[in-house]
Each structure stands twice: as C-alpha cells, then as structure tokens.
Amino acid sequence: MRKAAAGVVGERWSLLVLRELMLGERRFDRIARNTGASRDVLATRLRTLVEAGVLERRRYEEHPPRYEYVPTEAGRALQPVLLGLLQWGDRYVTEGPPPTVFEHSCGAELETRTVCAHCGREVEPGEPRVRRLGRVR
User: Fold this and answer.
1) pLDDT for 50
2) Which ranges does the record mark as transmembrane (predicted)?
3) What is the DSSP letter of 95?
4) pLDDT tens sequence across 49-68
5) Is residue 102, in this structure, part of any structural domain at all?
6) Which CATH number is 51's domain given?
7) Tens digit of pLDDT for each residue in 16-25?
8) Closest C-alpha to 49, from 5, 1, 86
C-alpha cells in the first residue's frame, strides 16, 4: 500500500467509518454510535476522508443544518478492500460479534477473490509479480 493511501484509509477510525458507510449508515450520530469514536475524532476523520475525495458531505436538513456522508467513486472503489478485510477478520480474528455475511443481489453469499482480468483465473498468494517503472521484480 502506498504511504499516501495508507494515510487516508489505513488509520483505524477511517476503516471503521468506511465499514459503516458500506453497511449503509450515512449520518454522524449513527456512525459515532456504531464505531465508538468520540465526536472530535469522528469529525476529524470524516473531514480527512472528505478532503481526500473518498466521501462527499451532503446537507439533508436545513434547520438545524445536518449532513450525511456519501461515498464518492473513490470511496465506492474501496468496497472490495473493505469486504475482504471484514471477511479476513471474521475468519482469522474470532473475538467479537458473529461474522457478517454479505449477499449479492442474486442471493448468493459474497466472497472476495482476486481474479486476473485477462485470463479469468483466481490469483493465488505469492503468484503476482510486482512491476515498477518498467522493471519486473
């Protein structure tokens, strides 16, 4: 993960906020309640995610002014990462609530996998090569 990407989404509260958004929560109070974040910490984290272009802040009430947070295209692109991390935690870190099951609109349970866009085969651990600046490592 690049340092810049880790600075935006690699922090604990960012991941918890993004989890809540993926699960459908949009409002500050609900996100605070579900994550356990203090109001100051959550406000700072949401501001960072908005400034990074991961979330958009939208007003949903005029008086008093109230806002909700909606994933941008960049935020929605994090869904497979978050889904994979949640599934990894449910499988390998057994403390806490029961596993969360995600279903596709067809009703089948979702499981994250990395698949080659060219040949369609699943990518096995250790199989990918890293190519930087035209070099293969």
Assistant:
1) 96
2) none
3) -
4) 999 999 999 999 999 999 99
5) no
6) 1.10.10.10
7) 999 999 889 9
8) 5
- Is residue 101 within 8 Å of 41, Cβ to Cβ? no
- The total number of structural domains in the chain stands at 1
**Residue 51 identity (one-letter amino acid):** E
Is 95 contained in some domain? Answer: no
Which residues, in sequence order, are CB contacts of 103 under 8 Å at separation 6+? Answer: 109, 110
pLDDT score for 102: 81
68: nearest Cα among 28, 20, 24, 19: 28
Q: Supply φ then ψ for residue 24, to 5 degrees.
A: 105, -5
Other C-beta atoms closer than 10 Å to the C-beta of 45 total 22
The token pair at 58 is: 């939208």
CB environment 85-115: b (16+ within 10 A), e (fewer): ebbeeeeeeeeeeeeeeeeeeeeeeeeeeee
The encoded tokens of residue 16 equal: 């918890």
The domain of 46 spans 3-77
Residue 117, in any domain of the structure:
no
Residue 131 is assigned to a structural domain of this protein:
no
Q: Which helix (H) or strand (E) holds 55?
A: strand 55-61
Cβ–Cβ under 8 Å, residues 92 and 85: no
